[in-house]
Amino acid sequence: MPCALCHSRNAGPFSFPRANPNLFWPFIVFLLVGLTLAQKGMPDSHSPTHTNFFRRGRQRILRCGDDPAMCSDRERNPWGGDTCCFQKFCKDITSDSNHCGGCGHACGFGLVCCDGKCVDVQSDSMHCGACFEECPGENRCSYAMCDYGG
Fold this sequence. Notes:
The chain is α+β, with helices and mostly antiparallel strands.
């Protein structure tokens, strides 16, 4: 008995139409040319400055593997600030909880790095809920809120 849903004699009820083999290689060539042109349009930045900070192709992470002094050099490190070279990458030691106050110095669970010091933003009146959010007056910080519960 012939299948009423089948498109041909050899096709089953769940067969898909075949792609045109004459279009496969032109499509691949088109994709390769497009990718090549897209890569050529992205300039590399080997010496970052403030003027090219937002250039396309710019990485957010600065590599310092060959020259650890790069992290502290403001000419080559547009982020500036206190940084150190850790495992070939510049790390911000003022706000990175894995490198708080120095390379490799990690804050404990639940602590946040604020200005190079590990603080508990759940209960610290000077950093209540986030870094540098100070509770007004004599209010205490509880559960990351100033004067919680009255």
